[in-house]
Amino acid sequence: MAFWDTGLIKPFRFFVVLVHEVNHAAAALLTGGEVVEIRTHWNESGHTLARGGIYPLISAAGYVGSALIGSLLIYTGLYPQAQRFVLLCIGAVCMGMTMAYTPLGGVDFFLGIGGGFVLCAMAIKSQRMARVGSVWMGVMLCLYSLFDFRTDLWYHAERTDAGLLSAYWGLDPLQVPYLAYLIALSWVLLSLACMYRAMRALVLKRKS
Fold it and tell me: Is residue 2 a part of any domain in this protein?
């Protein structure tokens, strides 16, 4: 947290945003849609363009999906082999989605492939390396989810995925913002519950 706004953490924050966008794309594909493009920018903005699929699940998959994956990476510390497998899958999916849907040559293209490759390599190398990579990525994903929640609840929910979902359901978030805030709040509570359960499981395991 002390180095959160420094260049030391910036590449990891960028990669977490890429994971956020990959979650949208994965949700689109899993619900029968088609992904057109995934882009992530150095200012930590990004977008996923998709056609079809179940939009409420696609829109929720970014914030909530990142928190769930982060929680899963932390929780599977109880099961080291499962943790390695989860880390390997995340790395492979990030590489595959980047190669398939991100235009060649951009920073997001190279970081998506490079970051995904590093996660895969850590998972394959050893259980210890997989644990280090999993804990680091799990913490980064959870912290960035909390960072995003601040934007959703206290600044401009109407400009976020919650606002887009509100507009999809027919309420302009600029005119009637309460639905966007209710959506964001539900995502926050769900994500915090998953984070809490993951950390609680590890604490109880340690005490036992």
Answer: no
pTM of the model: 0.91
- Domain span at residue 79 reads 10-207
Residue 133 in contact with residue 119, Cβ under 8 Å? yes
Q: What confidence tens digit (pLDDT) does each residue in 156-184 have?
A: 676 788 888 888 888 887 676 788 888 88
Closest to 18 measured CA to CA, from 114, 105, 154: 114
HEC string for the chain: CCCCCCCCCHHHHHHHHHHHHHHHHHHHHHCCCEEEEEEECCCCCEEEEEECCCHHHHHHCCHHHHHHHHHHHHHHHHCHHHHHHHHHHHHHHHHHHHHHHCCCCCHHHHHHHHHHHHHHHHHHHCHHHHHHHHHHHHHHHHHHHHHHHHHHHHHCHHHCHHHHHHHHCCCCCCCCCHHHHHHHHHHHHHHHHHHHHHHHHHHHHHHC
Q: How many domains does the chain have?
A: 1
